[in-house]
Amino acid sequence: MDIDGTLDEAYERLHRTGPEFDGWLSNHGPMAVEAMVRHGHAPQVHRWLDLYTRRLDDLPRGTTPITADDWRTALGDPRRLGDWLAFFGREVTEQPWRTVLATWWPRLLPGIAAGATHGVIRTGHAVHALLDHEDGPRLAELGQALGYWAARWQPVPLTTPAGTADPASALAGVPRVPDQTAGINHRLEQLTDLPDWPTALAALRPATEADQARDRLADLTTAAAVHYLANAHGSAVMLVHAATAPMAVLRTLPAVPRSQWATSLHAAWAASAAVTAAYTPAAPAPRHSLPTAPESAEEVFALAVHHGDEHVIKLADTSLEVHRRTGNGDALAAVIRAAGLIEEL
After folding, report:
1. What is the pTM of this model?
2. Residue 1 falls within a domain, yes or no?
């Protein structure tokens, strides 16, 4: 995947920066460069980083070390971000990374909304890189991703799936939050009082076996990518995460015990549904107004890299995987729409 070491070099540059900037915005650099390298665009990575890193903040310092005995009190406390980064930096060097992941994955999954789902997305990209090749910069990236997730840990109201709906039908049945005038925290807070929310979450057909959970998670990713095409005007940036979050979980499954796959599906479904509820517009765009897919999937990713926005690149990464698996051209067309709605880097 990374013959010339470009990804490791990019990680080393990015690990001098923090997981957030401008107060709370997520540093997408590690996610975007992993996708760019994997899709054959390593030559563009450092030029892209030269532009992107101008906006980033320095790596935060820790104050009080987190231990195996007191981690629960620090979970979800963004003031302890530096402490969490240091904690997981030690964890991934003192233990096998798969052991760390198997321990912390079920602890962190209930807080999958962390950083507007960027905690789990960054983790998924880090795991994807480690599954290809294990070395110091990639282990450090996993530690940074898990630390960010733990510091921003934020749950969404969960209801175990118990219905008969496939992911596309279940996603179509998700109700919108009534007030879409503020940020994601305000929108997610409304889910608790949304009368139809538990019913909507329960509508998904449950998975009784690990492989079934994996396949349903893949179908959820497809449904969210296709949903984006007609609904991106609700929020062209934020609705990207309804697809990229379940994709991150899907890519992590090979590295965690199969006994955790069903709960991984449930958490990913809740996260994707929550973002959908928070940002889906009142009405989809008319079909005739939407772009159509080009013939070449590679052309779509090249367009995303040329555009430069990190969200367009991440959506392209997910959409190309959806298209490879299903042949659904709407997934590629979703990237074209994102590029038309989101400002270029």
Report:
1. 0.97
2. no
